[in-house]
């Protein structure tokens, strides 16, 4: 009978995509793998060519999620649990359930109390990719001497392209469009809106159709662009008009995608699409840790040595504002 492994990552799209491939190094003949994902993130797991079993927790509602996790631990009875990223109460529930092997990052006080096979990692130094940090935890849990390099999330090309017809993206003579996704959560530096505007106008002048994607939350990164380009005949505005499957369809057929450090960049890279990904040189934002992985990814980074560790130093930095140096 197979043993059971519970893998936990309660986080956003890009973080999850940089974690899911870590299960590929676990022996499928010996272990059944179950994931605990943040509420709403199961749809991201479902995109991958590798099918996974998962349940969802909502870290914004810890009381309900604690009870749900407690009941599931009774049912699953995992032999190994790896907490890649989760609130303290997750590790506490693993401890109370007496999961034999409890692995995670030794950092805050609770990790020393509730994990029995923790690993010290200083991820804020950004010395390696997020996926490689996660693979270290798997190696620690299973006593692996090495793990494969350059693993990445892989999304098969969709079979349904109805979104292209829906939004009139079927171009004559097979001509493709480009996708520009300017918005982000604000966790890292980005291009300025005038830079996006200039780039979009240059592409339109080169006889390209430009698709703008985003959500309501991206509005602060789109207001100037929208004011300038909303009525441009070669700009197709799809902000807040796409579900996840439609977004994947449209990304998959793009000539290329331009995006900052976001889930969209990771999704496009996982589809094998050509991606121009714009990254901040601040240490904790650096593409060395957060770079999108795929066969056609080009990283664009300011040519500076950034003194910022956790955030931009602003006018105190001699290279400020360095993102204006990024050219595509």
Description:
The structure is a single chain. The chain is α/β, with parallel strands linked by helices and 328 residues long. The protein has two domains: 3-142, Rossmann fold (3-Layer(aba) Sandwich), CATH 3.40.50.2000; 162-325, Rossmann fold (3-Layer(aba) Sandwich), CATH 3.40.50. 30% of the residues lie in helices and 17% in strands. It is built from twelve helices and twelve strands. The strands form two sheets. It has a six-stranded parallel sheet with strand order 3-2-1-4-5-6, with helices on both faces. The longest helix has 15 residues, at 62-76.
Summarize the SSE layout with pairings:
Layout: E1 3-9, H1 13-17, E2 31-38, H2 42-47, E3 53-57, H3 62-76, E4 80-85, H4 88-96, E5 101-106, H5 109-114, E6 119-120, H6 130-142, H7 162-166, E7 178-180, H8 193-205, E8 210-212, H9 223-229, E9 235-237, H10 244-252, E10 257-260, H11 263-270, E11 275-278, H12 287-290, E12 297-300
Parallel strand pairs: 1-2, 1-4, 2-3, 4-5, 5-6, 7-8, 7-10, 8-9, 10-11, 11-12
Helix pairs in contact: 3-4, 8-9
